[in-house]
Structures are given as structure tokens and as C-alpha cells.
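task queued by scheduler; priority normal; single chain, no ligands, no partner chains; default sampling; output format set to C-alpha cells
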Amino acid sequence: MALKEHIVPKAHIHNGELTIPLSDELRERLDVSEGDELEAHVFPGSVVLRTSSPRDRDRSWERIFSVIDQVRVRPGQPAMPIAEVEQMIVDEVRSVRRARG
């Protein structure tokens, strides 16, 4: 699937609030309307906005807990810093998402 670039007007930050004007076409494609929330996911050099719904959040948490349930400490394995464990979880979730396409 080829990604088609859409030109979106520049975002504006005013008094600590971010405003991103979206065309009617983009709002329709994203299935969002006035008052809806978007989730921001920060990656090195970029921010991805996704629609947010309780159902989406529940599915995300289920996937995260599924990955966490697969984490096993091997006998004799030294304790890992929590930041390293969290990064491993993030990496695994990303690889699962890439595999699902």
C-alpha cells in the first residue's frame, strides 16, 4: 500500500495548546469531528497522531499485556533497569505492529 502524502496546514502552539487545522476531507477520512481526541505518539524526529477511542485503548492495552506476559526471567539472569525492560516492550510492540501491517 503506497502512502499518499497530504499537505496539512502548519500546526500552531499558543498558550501551551496545539492547534492543527484539518480539512473536511481529512476529518472525514480520520472519522473525527469537533471535540474528538487524538493520541500523540512521539518518535525520534516525528509525532504521529491517531484517533482515540475507548475501544482502541482497550485493544492497545491487551496487546501490551500480551507482550508483558511473554517476558520471562531466566535463571541467573541479572536484574535489568526498568527503562531497559520498557524499551524492550516498546520494541516488541513495534515489531508486532509491523508484522500485522
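post-processing summary
- DSSP finds three helices and four strands in the chain.
- The radius of gyration is 18 Å.
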